[in-house]
Automatic annotation (TrEMBL):
This is DUF1304 family protein. InterPro entries: DUF1304. The chain crosses the membrane at residues 9-30, 66-83, 90-110, 116-135. It comes from the Bacteria. It comes from Pedobacter fastidiosus. Keywords: Membrane, Transmembrane, Transmembrane helix.
Amino acid sequence: MGLSRFTKVLVVFVIFDFFMFFILEAIFWMQPFVHNLLLTWFDNPPVSLGFEMHALVLKKLFINQGFYNLFFAVGGIAGLYQLKVNRSVGYALILLVCFAAVGAGMVLAITSKAYLLATLQAVPAAIAFYNIFILTKHYKTERK
């Protein structure tokens, strides 16, 4: 028994989300449209700095964060690939990626007013995590 089509779509969405934020944060962060949009969404405008200066101050932090997102996206892709090679490893990688997305979405919701982004990050990942976790319980019982 493998992943349902719905769960696969959710996992691909989680991977895409991580990859998209890698692009935005690590590559295009200094583009005014990107940092203005994200700083506004995060409700993090500085009191004494303009967005351009705030973006410059945060540049290295966002590059670092962007690469974390890339590594999680790669982990998710590796997990999907491993489903064909070693199902247990594939499930473990995908569960880790979904867990990270849920955790990151919760932190985003708690520390900012970017509730829509937090929801888009956490909810699909939580559903995928639950579906895969239940599937691994079933898979484990089948193997005994």
